[in-house]
Design brief:
Layout lengths: L3 H7 L1 H14 L6 H14 L3 E5 L2 H11 L7 E4 L6 H8 L3 E4 L11 H7 L4 E4 L11 H11 L2 E5 L7 E3 L5 E3 L6 E5 L13 E5 L2 H11 L3 E3 L2 E2 L10 H11 L2 H19 L5 E2 L14 E5 L4 H10 L29 H9 E4 L7 H11 L4
Parallel strand pairs: 2-3, 2-4, 4-5, 5-8
Antiparallel strand pairs: 1-9, 6-7, 8-9, 10-11, 12-13, 13-14
Helix pairs in contact: 2-9, 3-9, 4-5, 4-8, 10-13
The structure holds pyridoxal-5'-phosphate.
Length: 369
C-alpha cells in the first residue's frame, strides 16, 4: 500500500545527516529540532501555533482536554473514521453524538449536523477523511450559530486546502479552534515512528495545550492542571524537518497517481472514483473507490492472486463495533456509513507509484468491464 523505503532512499543523505546531528548532540527530548520543526510547520500551514506531541490520537486528546469540557458534554462526530476520533471522546467521559457522512466524499454531512445539536452539545469534531476536507465553511457557520467549538481531525489531510467563499485559502487543521494531525509513518507527512501535532490560532488555547502535553506544568515542578506526557522525539522532529521540505512534491506525486487511476477507472460502470469537491483540494492520503455492484470480494481476491495490495478503510463503522455498542446505536442508524463499509476499496497510494504499477493495478482490478 505504501513504499516507505523507496521514499527514504531518495532523501537518505539529508535524513541520515539530520538523525546523526541529533545523536551527536544527544538532545533526544525537547531538542532544538522539535521547536524548529514546529516553526517550519506553522509557516507551511499558516497555523499561528503548532504544538508537537506523541501521536495523532494524543493530539485529539490534548485538543479536547484543552476545551475544559465536562463529563456528559456532547461532541458531534462521524462513525466512518479511524477509531481514534471516537475513542478520545469516550475516554474523556464525553458523550459522542454521531452523524452520517456524504456518500460521495465520505466526510461529515453538514445537512445532518444541525439536527444532532442539543443544549448539551459543546463541540464538533469533523474528520478530513482520506485527504479531502469537510465543508468547513458550513461547519464553522453552524458552530458559530450554536456557540460550539470545532476540532478538526486532519490526521489524513495535512496540506489539503479549503477555499472559502471570500476567496481566502486555509489549510486543513487551521480553520477550527483546534486542529490535529499525525506523523504516523504511512501518513502524508510521516516520521520513522509515532508523532503528532496540534494546531491553533488562539494564544490562550496554545498555552493550555502546551501545559497539558507537559504534565500540566506551569513552571518547573509546579502543576496547574492534570496533564499528560506527550512529546515528539527530537529524532522524529529532525526527520520531519527534512520531509516537510518535500511535502509539496509528495502531495503532487499522490495527485498525479490519483489522476492516472482516475483516467484508467472513471468509465468503469461498477466503480465510483473519488469525488472532488470544488471547495477543497485532495491530498490523497488514500485513493478510495466505491464498488457499486457487490463484486468487492471477487475483485479483492483477484488483486491478491496478482500480489497487489489493497485495503478496506473501514470494514465496520464505529457505531457497530463491539467496543462502542454501549453508545446505543444499532444497524441502520447510519445507512451511508454502513453502505460505504460494504463498498469501499483503497488501492496502493504513495509517492513512489509508477505508471506501470498503476496500469497493472487498474487492469487487474477492472478486467473485462
Ligand atoms: C491516523 C489517524 C489518527 C491517529 O493518529 P495516530 O498517530 O496513529 O495516533 C486519528 N484520526 C485519523 C482520521 C487518522 O487517520
Amino acid at each position: 500500500m505504501v513504499d516507505l523505503n523507496g521514499q527514504y532512499q531518495r532523501i537518505k543523505s539529508e535524513v541520515d545527516a539530520a538523525m546523526q546531528r541529533v545523536v551527536d548532540q544527544a538532545d533526544f527530548v525537547n531538542g532544538n529540532a522539535v521547536g524548529e520543526f514546529a516553526e517550519a510547520l506553522a509557516r507551511y500551514t499558516g497555523a499561528r501555533h503548532v504544538i508537537p506531541c506523541a501521536n495523532g490520537t494524543d493530539a485529539l486528546r490534548l485538543a479536547l482536554m484543552a476545551l475544559d469540557l465536562q463529563p456528559g458534554d456532547e461532541v458531534v462526530t462521524v462513525p466512518f473514521t479511524f477509531v481514534s476520533t471516537l475513542e478520545v471522546i469516550v475516554l474523556l467521559g464525553l458523550k459522542p453524538v454521531l452523524v452520517d457522512v456524504c456518500p460521495d466524499t465520505f466526510v461529515m454531512d453538514p445537512d445532518q449536523l444541525e439536527t444532532a445539536i442539543t443544549s448539551k452539545t459543546k463541540a464538533i469534531l469533523p474528520v478530513h477523511l482520506f485527504g479531502q476536507c469537510v465543508d468547513m465553511e458550513r461547519i464553522l457557520s453552524i458552530a458559530r450559530a450554536h456557540n460550539l467549538y470545532v476540532v478538526e481531525d486532519a490526521c489524513q489531510a495535512i496540506g489539503a486546502e479549503v477555499t472559502f467563499s471570500d476567496g481566502t485559502v486555509h489549510q486543513a487543521g487551521t480553520m477550527g479552534d483546534v486542529g490535529c494531525t499525525s506523523f504516523f509513518p504511512s501518513k502524508n507527512l510521516g516520521c520513522f515512528g509515532d508523532g503528532g501535532a496540534v494546531f491553533t490560532q488562539k494564544d490562550e488555547l496554545a498555552a493550555k495545550i502546551r501545559s497539558i502535553a507537559n504534565h500540566g506544568m506551569s513552571e518547573k515542578y509546579y502543576y496547574e492542571r492534570v496533564g499528560l506526557n506527550s512529546r515528539l522525539d527530537t529524532l522524529q522532529a529532525a526527520i520531519l524537518q527534512v520531509k516537510l521540505r518535500h511535502l509539496d512534491e509528495y502531495i503532487a506525486a499522490r495527485q498525479a497517481a490519483a489522476a492516472r487511476y482516475n483516467v484508467a477507472l472513471q468509465n468503469v460502470a461498477y466503480l465510483q472514483t473519488p469525488a472532488l469537491e470544488s471547495y477543497s483540494t485532495h491530498v490523497y492520503h488514500q485513493y478510495t473507490l466505491r464498488i457499486l455492484d457487490g463484486s468487492r470480494k471477487a475483485r479483492t481476491e483477484r488483486l491478491s492472486a496478482h500480489d497487489i495490495p489493497y485495503a478496506i478503510y473501514y470494514p465496520l463503522p464505529l457505531h457497530l463495533q463491539q467496543a462502542y455498542r454501549h453508545l446505543g446505536y444499532s444497524e441502520g442508524a447510519f445507512p451511508v456509513s454502513e453502505m460505504l463499509s460494504r463498498q469501499v476499496l483503497s488501492l496502493p497510494m504513495h509517492t513512489e507509484l509508477t505508471e506501470e504499477q498503476i496500469h497493472h493495478i487498474t487492469s487487474t482490478l477492472a478486467v473485462g468491464y
